[in-house]
Amino acid sequence: MIKNNTSLNKSINDSTKDFFSKIWYRNYLKNLKLISKKEKSGFIFENSFQFQNKSILFIGASPILEEEIELIKIYQNSFYLFSSDTSSNTLIQNGIKPDLVISIDSSRGTIYHFQNLPKEIPILTWLGGNSEIFYLDNPIFIFLSNYPLDQILSNVLFKNQNLILDNPTLNVSGISKSIAIKFLASQLVLSGISFQKYKGKTHAKGTGYENYSLSFINRKFPLENYNPITYKKEISKKNELALFHLLDKEKISVEFLKNINEFEKISKNKFLSIRITEPEEKQFLKFIKLNQIEIQNSLSLTKKNFQRFLID
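RE: above sequence
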């Protein structure tokens, strides 16, 4: 297991930011305008989730999930079920209904994971996420991250409220852990988590990647040959670091579902969020314009790219 390597963590953060900076910024301003007009959307706050003394089961999309589906079915009423966007379609196909689907990826293939998601299931995402999600009929819950615009938004619109979620794993499992800690859950339980290939596959059967990959498939390149580059046979340094942070038990108990054998049924409360209105959105955008140079530099954007996506 990797040690807590601060320099490696910073290097991964910097390379991720450099690659996605323009996409995040464009999506952020677009999605902000969308949620100010969407009724079933809002930001999570201190009363959004009532998880005290209850357990959360986070379900990833590793191929090992296929071997744990029956166990999840048996005990699905013993946890709040958090699903990654990638695993949500697999769960729905197997009669398992998540209480919340988490999505942070801004890439175009993300929307394929939601094609069969029932409209009543809420989606937790951030403003830099895939914009197509914000057009769905599902309730949209927004979390604030350490992204510079999120920190500014928090200060401008949500003063005196600590709404920022830390996510050193840089993936959806880390968001589930941050939620569990912030809202005082008793335990985080994991299923479908490995961050590497298993039996030659990168993801469980039935994910949205299967639909997304159809345009790449032909006689010489069958579906079995399509593998997203994220996971390899040996766990990468990036994913090893993510696993290290995810399994750290300093702030909350973390266990794998297959290692637990005692469960009790729980009652589940409705989730709540804070809506923002169009005037509030304009207040935030005005602040960005007034502090353009400083914000532009913090986002690692050129002046041209910064102005290109700025909403009038």
